[in-house]
Specification:
Elongation Factor Tu (Ef-tu), domain 3; Rossmann fold; binds flavin-adenine dinucleotide; 5 helices; alpha/beta; six-stranded parallel sheet
């Protein structure tokens, strides 16, 4: 873990409630794809956010922060970042945290599974995999409640088009009539598409209640617990 000060370079809306935050660390940030950082609000108040940017981009960190009305945890963090941006003051970060970073052995096909802003966690891995040149299939599933929340759909379609073994599957829980892709919960789409999850390494991020359900359903669908990764596992039973 590395403690580093960073300037807030930009805060840009991605949707009505999700913001992209760009940070410039004072020294090169050291982390692996899938690590998270903590934004230090106080000595005992540190807020966890996945690092959306790839590790080779050490001098600029990207976060995606969702701020629904029910979630003051993220909204307070965003207020802290906005205040620092306006004051041109640095924020304090703890970088390189987590145990669910990408294992690049390239021996197993990979499922990257994101619910909502869990996208940030797997986006870093997807971009890193594009750089390291792994030949195993990589299936990137992104589940959202409404189509308008797929704020990086075009970017991910371009990622999938860049390599034959990359696949991007967006899943909209409650779509409008025009949507012709997968619907419902994102992990159910995975289980519809893949007969057995036994061969796969699976990386997942999303709401805590979601991750508990996905873990149990995936194990019933053949997934091997030792090849399932989520930092939320540390917070749930
Ligand atoms: C280490 C760590 C890092 C974090 N990083 C971030 C971050 O970078 N940004 C951030 O905003 N928050 C972060 N959080 C907080 C938390 O992960 C988010 O609050 C969560 O991902 C938000 O999901 P959402 O509201 O966008 O999903 P929603 O919009 O509620 O759901 C999106 C999709 O997830 C699936 N889903 C949701 N609920 C269920 C369910 N009960 N069963 C099955 N599927 C379900 C569905 O497919 C649904 O369409 C982090 C937390 C930790 C512990």
């Amino acid at each position: 873990m590395q403690t580093v000060n960073a300037d807030v370079i930009a805060i840009t809306p991605l949707t009505d409630i999700i913001y992209k935050v760009t940070l410039k660390p004072a020294i090169a940030a050291e982390f692996e794809a899938g690590h998270y950082l903590q934004l230090v609000l106080g000595e005992k108040d540190k807020r966890a956010f996945s690092i959306a940017s790839k590790p080779s981009q050490q001098n600029e960190l990207e976060l995606h922060i969702g701020t629904s009305a029910a979630d003051s945890y993220a909204a307070q963090a965003l207020d802290h970042l906005r205040h620092a941006f306006e004051q041109k003051a640095p924020v304090e970060l703890e970088v390189g945290l987590g145990v669910s970073q990408l294992r690049i052995d390239c021996q197993r096909p990979i499922v990257l599974l994101a619910g909502g802003t869990g996208f940030s966690y797997v986006k870093s891995m997807a971009d890193h995999l594009a750089e390291v040149g792994c030949e195993q299939p990589v299936l990137f599933y992104w589940g959202v409640k409404e189509e308008s929340a797929l704020y990086a759909k075009t970017e991910m379609e371009a990622w999938a088009a860049s390599k034959e073994n990359f696949h991007f599957i967006p899943v909209v829980e409650t779509p409008q009539d025009a949507w012709d892709g997968h619907t419902g919960y994102v992990h159910q789409a995975v289980m519809q598409d893949i007969t057995s999850l036994e061969p796969y390494s699976i990386y997942m991020a999303g709401r805590f209640d979601m991750i508990g359900i996905v873990r149990d359903d995936f194990i019933k669908h053949g997934a091997i617990r030792e090849h399932m990764y989520a930092d939320a596992f540390a917070f749930i039973k």
